[in-house]
What we know:
Elements: H1 3-8, H2 15-32, E1 37-42, E2 45-50
Antiparallel strand pairs: 1-2
Amino acid sequence: xxxxxxxxxxxxxxxxxxxxxxxxxxxxxxxxxxxxxxxxxxxxxxxxxxxxxxxxxxxxx
Length: 61
C-alpha cells in the first residue's frame, strides 16, 4: 500500500474487524474453489477469478 495513501487516512483500519469480516469468505473459497482461484473484493463487488492458463515472461532490458 502506498505510504501517501496511509497518510491521507484519518485512522488505520481495524484489522481485527477485517479478520472477522473475511473469515467466512476464506472458508467458503477453501470449501468451494480450487487452489488456483482467488477472490478480489472491491467497493460494492466481489470477483471470483479462475486463471485457467497464464504465462510469465521476462521483460527485456
